Amino acid sequence: MDKRYSVNIPTHWKKIKCPFFKSDNYNSISCEGCSKESYIRHAFKSRFIKEEWQNSYCMEISTYSKCPIFCVANEKYN
């Protein structure tokens, strides 16, 4: 019998373009860190500021490489 599993992935995660994005919650974003064994948690003062950040960086192919977190995480591959 073929088993199927359902994972509840937030709808906005499907719009994320940045390869280093890992997850988010109410007012923070978690991304790959500067080593393979680390993550960076970027906390914001409000959910609205976090959403603005995601719209500006995480969800845009043309701008995610300008994100400071991307720059740190990308160093381990250079």
Our count of helices gives 2
Task: Tell me the number of strands.
Answer: 3
Strand content: 15-25%
The ordered H/E elements are EEEHH
The largest sheet is: 3 strands, antiparallel
What's the shape? globular
Low-confidence stretches: none
Describe this structure in words.
By secondary structure, this protein is of the alpha+beta class. It has two helices and three strands. It has helices at 47-58, 68-74, and strands at residues 21-24, 28-32, 39-43. The protein has a three-stranded antiparallel beta sheet with strand order 1-2-3, covered by helices on one side. Strand 2 (28-32) and strand 3 form a beta hairpin. The model has no long low-confidence stretch (mean pLDDT 88).
At a glance:
It is built from two helices and three strands, in the order βββαα. The chain is an alpha+beta fold and 78 residues long.
